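Suppose you are handed only these lines of text.
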Amino acid sequence: MTDVTIISGSTLGSAEYVAEHLAGIIEQQGHTANVLHGPELEELIPQGVWLIVSSTHGAGDLPDNLQPLFEQLAAEQPSLAGVKYGAIGIGSSEYDTFCGAIDSIDRQMIERGASRVGTILKIDITQHEIPEDPAEEWVKSWIELI
Ligand SMILES: Cc1cc2nc3c(=O)[nH]c(=O)nc-3n(C[C@H](O)[C@H](O)[C@H](O)COP(=O)(O)O)c2cc1C
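From them, the structure of the protein bound to flavin mononucleotide can be written out as follows.
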């Protein structure tokens, strides 16, 4: 059994809904999941398994509710060597900076010593009216890799 901390970054709610949906799927598979929407560093234990689900805003920017966490990580530079994580981006291919936030998050996690499990899932909302569907399929394989 794996205990997964799901971190969502969202402005209008899509990534939040995906995060909540994935928590249910992970629990159905016999694991536990705790969803944190835009947590600050103090709320996170720097070890175990994280699943980061983030939309992109501005021009490739992190959603407002995830910016404080990644600013803190950049400023304080804690070691995340004990963290294994998965990464899901939600964005629109109408933007040149498609899913730019999850790429930036991935770079920062690796810089802090965390290990990514699996490939990054990038969900294009122009192709997937219901982003939960590709996310659900992906997470079922991802959880097996942990
Ligand atoms: C003002 C604005 C800027 C956006 N910029 C980007 C972007 O740079 N790259 C991208 O992939 N998607 C971009 N998007 C699309 C959002 O990521 C997409 O609508 C997503 O579903 C929003 O999820 P959320 O409700 O969880 O924030 C943008 C959307 C808005 C409204």
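What can we learn from it? The mean pLDDT is 98. The chain has one domain: 10-145.
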